[in-house]
# Entry
Amino acid sequence: MLFALSTSHKIGLATMGAIFIIYSLVSAFILPRRNPNFPGRYLVPYILLSIGMFALMMGAVLVFGKEPKVAEASAGTTTTQTSTTGTTTTSTPSTGDPAAGKVVFMNSGCSACHKFTAAGASGTVGPDLDNLAEYAMHANQPVEPFTSAAIEHPPAAYVPPGYPTNVMQPYGGVTMTPTQLSDLVAFLTTQ
Ligand code: HEC
# Structure
């Protein structure tokens, strides 16, 4: 959890922690050595002071431990959130550029096999990509990861009846860069 905190908050926490530790050491070792009766007649003030120190430390944890919520505006980044239960890290896939994706679609020969109205494609070897959302629903997956996986490593998680599952080549890895792939997925899924 410490790693997720901003530097100033870490310094604040560390300083408070150090003060607390020094206070504990002094009252546990140094004061009793100089005055074997310690806390003796200072008992009540000592207890009050200890409670005060404890409250201060807890306050510091509450104040400094709370990371200001950083608005994670841009997609395609890793967001780290701190909570009392620990640290959760989620990765959002990059959002591609549909216009660039259209160029990828036109240049990759997808039109030869697929119908996709936005690209003026009318192939019939593969499924009609105008119905991608419906196929993803059959596969019980969100449409972006469904589409991305279908292009990277066919066959798709759901293939409508009547289409061969061994003719579309895998476009993942060398054939297409991750950017081209996410652009292409954006083009296919934002129509
Ligand atoms: C040689 C013909 C052919 C080419 C070229 C081709 N596909 Fe396919 N595609 C198919 C066939 C057949 C399927 C159905 C079986 C499967 O998923 O492999 C399919 C499935 C898909 C699916 C999943 C649809 C579904 O649910 O079944 C997507 C998305 C897709 N193709 C996109 C593309 C894109 C984008 C390109 C270009 C980069 C492309 N395809 C190139 C033949 C082709």
User: Anything to note?
Assistant: The radius of gyration is 30 Å. Residues 79 and 90 are 6 Å apart (CA to CA).
